[in-house]
Give the backbone structure.
Amino acid sequence: MKYQFFLLSVLLVVLAELVASIPATADVFSDTEALLPPAQKWSGKSESLVVPANDPWITPAERTGLTATPGYDETMVWLHKLVAAAPELKMVSIGRSLQGRDFWMVIASADQIFTAEALNATGKPLLLAHSGIHAGEIDGKDAGLMLLRDMTVAGKRKELLANTNFLFIPILNVDGHERRSPYNRINQRGPEEMGWRTNARNQNLNRDFTKLDTEGVRALIQVFRQWKPDLYLDLHVTDGADYQYDITFGGNGRSGWSPAIGNWIEDVYRPAVSSALSENGHEPGGLVFATNGMDMKDGFLTWSGDPRFSNGYGDATHLPTILVENHSLKPYMRRVLGTYILLAETLELMAREEVSLRQATLSDRRQRPKSIPMGFKRNENQVPENVLFKGISSERYQGEVSGAEVVRWTGKPINESIPKVYISEPTEMVEIPAAYIIPAVWSDIVERIALHGIEVEQLSKPLSTRAEVYRLPGAGIAEKSGWTPNPFEGHIRIDPGEPVKQVIETTFPAGSYRISTDQPLGELLVLMLEPLAPDSFLQWGFFLEIFTRTEYAEAYVMEPLAQKMLESDAKLKQRFEQKLASDKEFAASQHQRLKWFYEQTPFYDEQYLLYPVARIPQPD
Ligand SMILES: [Zn+2]
């Protein structure tokens, strides 16, 4: 009996522990619908795009009523089958991920031309679209599969390929796509499971367009160079505020680095694509960045992204680029169908507006401005214009947990007039030099620059010339030149402070790299090499070595030397005395006092805090 009692107690203890290990609130997490603001009822003409269950070419997502999305393998098996049946399609691998998955790209050409050169020679405009640069935002993949079917084997939209060619990358962040879970996007309404935002090394591909750390973006840049698309679509899903728009899109603004393309997107692309979406029951809008996430009445901002982002990169390289952001709170089906309409209308529009699109691009590619903005900010003097905004009603309540006010979106459509604030004022303008010189020892930077398709020349003999160099705030003002305490995207970001430009006469040795700005990607080059540009290699921490002092003077040498310097230089003595009188910390520090003299000797390291990339000024 005793023994049985013991067993029973053990069993009870084990049971109790099992129960304790199951979170009491498990079902709080599983009902994701209950977490989100109310969904609006929706039906639209685009619903007729979904094929019946017995259609032999039903896509994996359609089989679930557009509530779930297939994994990588299922997607690629379906696509390979489609490609085998459709002579207009071919699939190529454009690279491979860190975990060994291919980045597949579908080439769609009615002429059955599948090489870059021959496709370009057809003269037809070429659209490139990809989905899943953030793999949890995967609507574009399932829309693209339906569209590829309809323009080929199903025969419903064959006309789309009559005058355009189409490149489609269904999943760019393939490794992130396979980190699947229902819990990857807490603010998003479906699909049932989705991939993860970043890649297998936690890098965000949509911050990588200039530095090129990731396989995915490197492969994409190679596609830009090789296939030369006329228009590029990057398909995402939002986070943030609730509103009526189900699909928002835009370029990088009218006043960015590609003004003609910026105007084309607003004046030609937006009206055509918006009206196609409206006709099919969708609610298109411009990209929305709320000024205050609690209240849309405070208005919203336009956004000109830096070149680390797809749309900023497109702007800086004069590649017409549209960022598409489906609204995360709309159900998956509505978002996929909206993306389908946007893709189809884009192809139609490109056939109609081929000439205007290419003219805008050429005009921006040919511009050789004297100076360019390093980035864009809000113009504080500008009175924001009021625009009609299709919002959703909201209220605020006091959050007991957070101890602060929280917004609650209540689901009722409201149309209101709210301020639209333009982020279009240059942060700083920097004069474009004729060329940059990079010492041979920094060839890793040059390799990344060349990956973009920027032409680089290596000096075969020494070059004696006048040049400009930047000295970063250092020595006495070193405090201004620092780094953010946390790593970002695997880098230590550098705040360059206010670099001081110096003109020197110098000789660059043979082997140095000379990179001219007089090329179509000249502005991108400037944005990667100027210290003040947020996406410069300097700010991304690629030049960390220059921030380290490596030689020091001992006090037993500096004290008598400083004494001699004071005796031989009356002005120096005067400056020293002024410094002692005005700077208490300095006066109290033997180290600082002696360092002050050391910096004024030829023993001091003149390369400390000297940015090694030189500018060759434009001829006068
Ligand atoms: Zn995204």
Notes: The chain has a mean pLDDT of 93. The longest strand covers residues 405-421.
